Amino acid sequence: MENRSQIMASSDPVQEFDSLRAQSKFVFAVFYRGHWCPFCIGWLRRLAALSPAIVAAGGTPVIVTAESEKFLKDTREASEYDRKAIVDTQNLLAKELNTRGLVSVAISEKNGYDHGMAQPALLVLKEDDTVLESWAIVPSTMNLGGAKDRPVLDEVWENVEAQLKGKSKVHETYTTTGFFKTVWGKIFG
């Protein structure tokens, strides 16, 4: 079970992220929209399943959201993700990672998000700032405003794992999650 520091809103999300990176071989960070997004919940379920392997390889999985802390419990229950979380309602971390040239997390206007909603993104960053993977959605009508067409995290992990072992990436491109696969998984588990 987590300690309270893994659950609370982050007072300094950039410092918290940098601290996590410094304390582990790499950070496997996943940005998600909110507890209400079935695509996000499905993505976080996969991260939850991959988390033991990430930790065994010396990494730290972490989820990042601009959604209010009061919804984190709902997200955790729906996704079964129980590890580190950074609640960043001002999107300070997303902006900083963009400034550093690591990942360009899109920020969209959305009711309930005073400083905008961070769209799906992922960053796998080693403690020495080597980027193993970086991806961010560009919201459009075709991907339901940033909801779908995310890379399958199992494939991302296979690439990260290969790179950690000094090997070439396994996947040149990723399979993406689509609308029907998400709905099918929601209905039939």
Automatic annotation (TrEMBL):
Alkyl hydroperoxide reductase subunit C/ Thiol specific antioxidant domain mapped to chain residues: 23-131
Gene3D superfamilies: Glutaredoxin
Coiled-coil features, chain-numbered ranges: none
Pfam families in the cross-refs: AhpC-TSA
Single Gene Ontology MF annotation: oxidoreductase activity
SUPFAM superfamilies: Thioredoxin-like
Protein name in UniProt: AhpC-TSA domain-containing protein
